[in-house]
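Recall from the previous lesson that a structure prediction takes nothing but the amino acid sequence as input. Here we apply that procedure to Sugar phosphate isomerase/epimerase family protein from Deinococcus petrolearius. The sequence below is the only information supplied.
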Amino acid sequence: MKLSVFTPVFGTLPLNEMLDRVQEMGLDGIELAAGGWPGTTHAVPARLLADPAHLDTFRQELAARNLEVLAVSVHGNPLHPNADTAAQYHRDWRAALDLAARLEVQTVVTFAGCPGGAAGDTVPNWITAVWPLEFLAALDWQWRERVIPYWQREAEHLRGLGLRAALELHPGFVVYNPATLLKLRSAVGNTVGANLDPSHLYWQGIDPLVAIRELKGAVHHFHAKDNLLHPQNIERNGVLDLTPYENIVDRSWTFRSVGSGHSELHWSQIMAELRLAGYDGAVSIEHEDALMSVREGLQRAVDTLKRVVLREGPAEAWWLK
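The prediction returns the following tokens.
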């Protein structure tokens, strides 16, 4: 496995300074933000693709620091019921695919998206209940008319480019847990897999260790981000929490840097489960810890992960000879 960082955390730095910081932390590479949320601070696909010299310079800056682009990331909602909004996110997605192909990066990270609940809707509708029954009817419409047709086309496009999509399991979108990822994968094929981010699983009550086993062979990317649950607030309001992120005291859960929400032993177990599931890709740090500065939070994550990430394959079992 290789350690990387999701680049928006360095959004205020120019490319060279960002890469210097990544090198100083002893990481192997980056997950490059290239459109949609949260933007393209360090890599505008249209510019890189239109100017071979600019693309060559970008590659040289990476090579000079012995770094790789381990994934390209373009979060958005191409299923948005507003046609203009959906079209823009789709253009961002396709541009990121072209950039990944040019950079020879196999994995592109994104969201599955979320449509409206019926034709004519103007805002997305994330359905989380099976009653009243019109919810189930709307869910069936979403998958039949919007989700599967779109991702069937995109899966075919991915195959043509030799790429794969890593859909972040994120509440608010139609793919948010192992069951929904596997549902989509069964409909469109194995070019679509999971970006597994434990921080979005913990608060749903999903055990990442169980999720990784459930998704064996279907994990295409991994976000290293932790979550601290606040039992007293969960007991009061549950986990579907609309309290603003900055109001940490009253929230049911809070994003934390790796090792600040769950123990190092637990993170070691996650790395072992990934290995058992056949995953040997990027472990990409995503910093969204509101209690730590960027420098402190990243250093905590890097220090913890360097102790637990399995960087090499298993040794030959000498004791079985």
